[in-house]
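Regression check, zinc ion case 116:
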Amino acid sequence: MGSHCCGAQCLLKYNSESVIDILVSVQNELSGFSRDEKKNFMRDKIRNCVVPVSLDKQQSDAKNFHYLWVIGSNEQMCIKGVCRIAFCNAYGIGHTLLETLCSEVKQGVRLTEQVC
Ligand SMILES: [Zn+2]
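Current build output:
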């Protein structure tokens, strides 16, 4: 269950019982979503995974952020810093959809930064 990813076995670094709990909670979170609702949910999720690399004057360069992939919405019960493959597996989305949503999020980040 989600243990095969980049080779670093991101999920196996965690206590397996809590990993299963978290993956189950993710499935519960997603259940009942239509395809579009899931897309919107994932877009928000990905937006929350964006971390600015530098908070100094380089901030104006919108390329300076990366993703900290987090599985789970509960701060007390989540897996942080997994690879994107583990993230995709946990949320049951394809790599292509992830790429699409990431580029939408990136554009959103740029727009916000220009406005501010
Ligand atoms: Zn991995």
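Comparison notes: The pocket of zinc ion is lined by residues 5-6, 8, 10, 82-83, 85-86 (CB under 6 Å). The chain has a mean pLDDT of 85. No diff flagged against the previous build.
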